[in-house]
Structure formats: C-alpha cells, structure tokens
Design a protein that fits this description.
mainly alpha
C-alpha cells in the first residue's frame, strides 16, 4: 500500500489536469461561435485570437495528459484485473489519436479566419463559411471522441468495484458516468430534437468523475479489508 498511495495521488492530479485542460478547450472555443452568423463568429475568433490559440494548445495538452492518466491508472489497478486494466488502457489510447486529429479542425478554422497568402483568392464571405464549417466539424469530432470518453469508464468502474482499496460506490458512479456519455452521444446523433434535455440528464450522470478526482486527491486508497 505504501507504493499504491502515491500512485493514486499521481492519478488524481493527472485526472484534475485532464479536467482543467479539456474543460477549457471544449467550453471556451464553442463559446465564440455565434449560431448561424459566420461573420460574427470570425470576428469573435480574431478578437480573442490568443485565447483561441490557447484553447487549441489546451486541447492538445489534454490528450497528452490522458495518455499518462491511462498509464497511471493501469499501474494502480493492474493487480486487480489484468483484463479490465488492459481494456481501460486500450480505450484511452484509442481516444487520443482521434482527439489530436480533431484539433486540426480548429487550426484550419483559425487559418481561414485570418486569411492571407493563397487564401486571398477567396472572398471574406467564403472564408467565413469555411471557418464555420471547420468549427462544426470540430463539434462533430467531439461526439466521436465522446464515445471513448464514456467507454473507458466502464472497465475503470469495474476495476474500482473489484478492488478492495476504494469504495464500491465510486465504481458504480463511474459506470453510471459511462452511461451518461453514451446517452449524450446517442441523443445528439439519433434524437437531436431531444438532445438538450437528455444531455442535461447525461451531464448529471457524469458527476461520478468529479467524485473520483476528489477521492483520489483527498483520500487516495484505503487499506484493503481481509476477504471473508
């Protein structure tokens, strides 16, 4: 347990860094978009270019942190179940390339918004529409990544449930969070008219991740009780 406790703290700090970097990138960048108004959206991007670039950098950093979080959690839980720990790590590693690639849509949107060089052959209206197109692709890319964000929580939750050094309730909260991500994804793809209300319910389900972060940072791991 002396080596497990520092591993849990490390995973907690990485999880917190993931939440901060990912949250900033996914919340700030969409806030600049004015639905149905490409010129206003481009004006927002150019007026806050430094923060927009920071959002891209934050999104890239989020993916790097996700890799190390997956490795830290794999190290923490590999003795609980090799199968589940490997599945958890595999889903994390599968999500990262998709997340990296999705950031290219933001780079393309910024490039079109700024114009210049060979883009001078396009008029302002065409560049504005192109910018909105890549921003929309970025949003659709988040839906694809969201599938992995949800699925990796299933083996993670099962590992917590099977372990004897973390509360079983935390594991079930992660399983519920997995269902929240999947529900949000299906609602946006299949039921766009009801997506807003269903996304609110799904967002509440994701609260389990916040609890897990706090637990890893504050409590860490417990001494396992002897099996009956």
């Amino acid at each position: 347990m002396s080596s497990t406790k520092p591993s849990a703290r490390t995973a907690g700090w990485l999880y917190l860094a993931l939440a901060v970097t990912g949250g900033f990138s996914m919340l700030y960048v969409p806030s600049l978009v004015v639905p149905g108004n490409a010129p206003a959206t481009v004006a927002n991007i150019l007026a806050h270019e430094s923060l927009f670039r920071l959002g891209i950098a934050s999104g890239l950093g989020c993916q790097i942190v996700f890799i190390f979080l997956g490795l830290a959690l794999h190290r923490l839980f590999r003795d609980v179940s090799v199968t589940h720990a490997t599945a958890m790590k595999a889903l994390v590693m599968a999500a990262v390339p998709v997340g990296f690639l999705n950031q290219l849509n933001l780079v393309a949107a910024l490039r079109l918004a700024k114009g210049g060089d060979y883009l001078a052959t396009l008029d302002a209206a065409q560049r504005d529409v192109g910018t909105m197109f890549f921003l929309d692709l970025y949003g659709q890319g988040l839906l694809i990544v969201e599938a992995f964000w949800g699925l990796w929580l299933l083996p993670f939750g099962l590992l917590v449930i099977k372990s004897r050094f973390m509360p079983v309730l935390l594991g079930w909260l992660l399983v519920i969070a997995c269902g929240g991500y999947v529900l949000d994804l299906l609602a946006r793809l299949l039921l766009p008219d009801a997506a807003a209300s269903l996304s609110t319910i799904a967002g509440l389900a994701k609260f389990g991740e916040v609890v897990m972060i706090l637990w890893l940072l504050v409590k860490g791991v417990q001494e396992p009780r002897p099996a009956a």
